[in-house]
Amino acid sequence: MSRGRKDYPARRIRLTVEYDGTDYSGWQRQENAISVQQRLEEALSRLLGEKTGVIGASRTDAGVHALGQIAMFDTKSGIPAEKFAFALNTMLPADIRVRASEECAPDFHARYQAKGKIYRYLIDNAPHASALGRRTHAHSIYPLDASLMDEEAQSMVGTHDFGAFAASGSIVKDTVRTIYACRVLREGREVALLVHGDGFLYNMVRILAGTLMQVGSGKLERGAIARAIETGDRLQLGITAPPQGLTLMRVFYEDDASRAGDEFKRLMSDWKGLQ
After folding, report:
1. What is the DSSP string of 51-118?
2. What is the mean pLDDT of residues 238-258?
3. What is the per-residue pLDDT for 274?
4. pLDDT tens for residues 135-170?
5. Distance between CA atoms of 186 and 271, rounded to whole angstroms?
6. Nearest CA to 249 among 77, 57, 79?
């Protein structure tokens, strides 16, 4: 402890973090690349004058974005909890922002106590890609039947073994997950996939998005998702869609899990397509 510095009782602080993942190797720290977690930890360490670790709810992949990533850290600093967001935002790069900071229970865990997540995947479906949307949308030159995609997506709903949706090299032992809602919407040239589940396998949403894109363009027979769930065969599914279309929208915990369905409906109704 530095001379003259006062230690306060230990507290756990919860952060809601938004980021554009384009220029990062993902959320998690890596040896030879810059991650979102690293930038947050660097900012916190400068602010607090000591090395400070951060744990996030979701290990988003390289190029994937977040509007509602939840993270936590422990501190003995006397800084008011709600002021951390303001202080950190003066130190973070412009593509990472802390939307809120608050004190939470000392046993709160951002990752292990998560009860559900909502992801969104955006597709720019037009002959020519959008210059402004290139960082946040995948692009499909082939016309997509969003109604057919939405119908196909309903096979995801329920509790299933999603082993076929696990990326190559995944070491997770339990591949059973519950999907509460899965919808595909279209507005103008933009197609949006929204999916709410209790958890997701590595690259699961991107494999889902790629499969739906191929079904919607007629490159893959309808029923592909149901067949893959039944057989566990990854070859029944489509390509892994590119990362830039994917955003972690919300993470839910015990205190707000009951409102997840309403939040899903709100995201559907508030979403507006590319013009």
Report:
1. ----EES--PBTT-EEEEEEEEEEE---S-TTHHHHHHHTTS-TTEEEEEEEEE-TT--TTTT--EEE
2. 95
3. 63
4. 999 999 999 999 999 999 999 999 999 999 987 766
5. 10
6. 57
Q: Which stretches within the chain are classed as H helix?
A: 36-48, 83-89, 146-153, 204-216, 224-231, 260-270
pLDDT per residue as tens digits for the range 171-182: 778 999 999 999
**Is residue 23 among the annotated active site residues?**
no
For residue 156 the two structure tokens come to 């995801």
Q: Residue 66 to residues 17, 19, 118, 187, 251: CA-CA distances in angstroms?
A: 7, 5, 11, 22, 10
d(CA 34, CA 19): 13
Q: Kindly state the tokens that stand for 252.
A: 């839910």
Q: Express each pLDDT in 80-128 by its tens digit.
A: 999 999 999 999 999 999 999 999 999 999 999 999 999 999 999 999 9
- Picking from 96, 129, 111, the residue whose alpha carbon sits closest to that of residue 242 is 129
Sign of CA dihedral 58, 64, 68, 73: positive
**What's the Rg (C-alpha) of the chain?**
20
Catalytically annotated residue among 7, 23, 61, 145: 61
